[in-house]
Amino acid sequence: MNPDLDNLGQGFKCIRNDFATYIKGRKIKMECKSLTSKCWIVEHGNNLAGYITLMADKLTSEYCLLENEGIGYKTFPAIKIGWLAADRRAKGVGSRLLEWAIQYVTNDLTNRVGIRFITVDALFDPDTGYDISGYYERFGFEHVDSDHTAPCGNFRTMYFDIKSVIEQARALRQSV
Ligand SMILES: CC(C)(COP(=O)(O)OP(=O)(O)OC[C@H]1O[C@@H](n2cnc3c(N)ncnc32)[C@H](O)[C@@H]1OP(=O)(O)O)[C@@H](O)C(=O)NCCC(=O)NCCS
Question: Boundaries of each N-acetyltransferase domain copy (predicted)?
């Protein structure tokens, strides 16, 4: 999971070409070298099956999302999913990477620094109608904007509450 960035992505085929170009190109190398992004990969043999990048973020909401916990802020510490892609021949790799990232942030990073949410700018392509927000909804991500039905750009910001995972794990432990 700690990729040799120089030889990454040969043969990688993604339903979105921009995600294949990104992993094969210079941009990801520059971002990782500059510490603005961290990349994890899944390989199948010597081939890239999927990748995910994570970075520090700040979630800004129009609402006080944690008011019922006595927290009056409208901005919150978060980790952002930058790029997530799977080879189109490798079913489920993207989901496994996303599940891994949620567990990694929850189990490892929250012990070291304050983080409440995982964020993602879910891709929406008005030219083709490609919309990945439904995919993230399946994992429990919610939309930041109350009117998310008509995105004006090419993404919709979504967030996932890490505390829900911690509470589910606690409830499971108590039930056994
Ligand atoms: C998004 C992506 C990483 C998902 O990879 P994956 O989890 O391996 O994808 P799979 O094709 O195995 O699909 C997993 C499930 O998600 C569902 N799904 C896929 N795209 C979806 C969408 N846009 N909305 C709702 N569900 C979706 C699939 O139907 C499948 O459901 P099933 O398990 O019930 O059969 C992959 O499609 C991809 O690389 N897309 C292009 C890049 C991209 O959009 N990245 C996200 C940018 S924010």
Answer: 1-163
